Amino acid sequence: MDGADLHPVGWVRSPVADRADAVRQGDEGAPDVVIDLVPAVAAAAADLRAGDELLLLTWLHLADRTTLAVHPRGDVTRPSTGVFATRSPDRPNPIGLHRVRVLDVDGLHVHVSGCEAVDGTPVVDIKPVLGSVEDR
């Protein structure tokens, strides 16, 4: 597919190194992490401020890209469900979506609240959470 090349804008630096130790969602006790940005995107991060709510899009590099169905949350008592109807990290294109709040910005290091991505996860984009239509 032409035009589908992704280039990381940074990487997650987290105390969670093993996927088995990560919580399933950020609001379930995920640690604060640092996003280490690449120098080439410094201008793109120039206006990030403490308190901003962001959506981090990551590439879940440890995912199984052949998985098409899972038991939600690993609960085998639940029916097998196609991954497009779940938040499973295992999927054909393992893009992670993490809603976080900026705690501090120190040059190319963006400290954010609870993010469930493991250490070394590539960040492919950062977008602001939009407020009401009137505030855009």
From TrEMBL:
PROSITE patterns per record: TSAA_1 (PS01318), TSAA_2 (PS51668)
Residue stretches making up the TsaA-like domain: 6-136
InterPro entries per record: TrmO-like_N, UPF0066_cons_site, YaeB-like, YaeB-like_sf, YaeB_N_sf
Keyword S-adenosyl-L-methionine assigned: yes
Keywords: S-adenosyl-L-methionine
Organism: Cellulomonas fengjieae
Name this polypeptide is given: tRNA (N6-threonylcarbamoyladenosine(37)-N6)-methyltransferase TrmO
Pfam family, one: TrmO_N
PANTHER family: TRNA (ADENINE(37)-N6)-METHYLTRANSFERASE
Gene3D superfamilies given in the database record: YaeB-like
Sequence similarity: Belongs to the tRNA methyltransferase O family.
